[in-house]
Design goal:
The chain is an all-alpha fold. It contains 1 helix and no strands. Keywords: Chaperone.
């Protein structure tokens, strides 16, 4: 008879751990996606900076001031 309540407590604890693991895994995936997105943005900004720095000083350029 004592095994019943203990089993239920273990089952509940295991379910809680599973939910935490699922949530943590989801957060890790989101962080990985965000890291990749930011890496691409940094690479794009670096390439843009390289192109701009190679242009002659008297070259006319524009700067974005709002959303696209």
């Amino acid at each position: 008879m004592a095994a019943g309540p203990v089993d239920m407590e273990l089952k509940k604890a295991f379910q809680e751990l599973q939910m935490k693991m699922i949530d943590t895994t989801r957060r890790l995936r989101q962080a990985d996606v965000q890291i990749e997105t930011l890496k691409k943005a940094v690479k794009y900004a670096y390439c843009t900076g390289e192109v701009i720095s190679e242009a002659p000083p008297d070259t006319k350029m524009y700067q974005s001031v709002g959303r696209m």
